[in-house]
Amino acid sequence: MDRRLEDIRALIARHKINDQLFGLLGLSCMMVAIIMLLAAFLDLFIDGAHRLTWDFFTSFPSRRAGEAGILSAWVGTTFVMLTTMLAAVPLGVAAAVYLEEYAPKNWVTDLIEINVTNLAGVPSIIYGLLALGLFVYQFGFGQSILSAGLTLALMILPIVIVATREALRSIPTSIREAAYALGATRWQLVSGHLIPYARGGILTGVIIGMSRAIGETAPIITIGALTFIAFLPINPEAPVLSILRFDWLWQPFTVLPIQMFNWVSRPDKAFLANAAAAGVVLIVMTLLMNGLAIYLRYSIRKKIKW
After folding, report:
1. Per residue in 153-179, pLDDT tens?
2. End position of a domain, from candidates 17, 33, 51
3. How many other CB atoms are there within 10 angstroms of residue 6's CB atom?
4. Which pTM was predicted?
């Protein structure tokens, strides 16, 4: 008996050591990723810090490096991301709810699930070629913000669908059983319980998808994003009215990754500082967007009581 107890204690001790080693390995991997990100950010910041002025944010691109700015680029990025989010999130959540709660379990839905999962790994240039033929030429949207937003929405749609389905699956079965026991319809269950409880997981998918979309260059170039643009998609004299009219959806555009690509390809090394400053702005925009989504997810999960 004593020998068996000693063996159990030794086994528990080995498992504790393995747990500690695995935790240390995971912490090391996380620290390597964080250090690499900080190193890249600091390198960009050191190179472009002197260009991060008010004029840099309020000036259009120029052939002179010292006078060039990112006004049209960050405004275009904002509108493209807004269009992407408005297109991808409702469609992705609705598709996930249908597949998880409404669709019959047969070979057709199994085939759809496999394709949705595989689409998350398709190279972004493929989405650009698809959008060029579908949105730009077939639907006649042209080389506009609408085409860019829909292209990126298609690209992140599988991510939103998969994340939403996993969030719905994580909800205890007792929630569904209790709702049906009280006479709730399936729509009442979905709208009143499942979607509110799954909002944290849905936001996680949105965070991942939008973080990928904001830095994409290949599909945006494919559909005809401009590398040099000296005007805004909205009327500066009446910006609120222009936004509400949605005229900006049909305007030409550029985004920060395209602007960075343009400056990096210039022979004048002074433009490299502009590209570094634009990279800092792009990283900060991504972190702010992710930070807001993480805060909302944390606030939602605090309010949920199973």
Report:
1. 999 999 899 889 888 888 888 888 888
2. 51
3. 10
4. 0.84
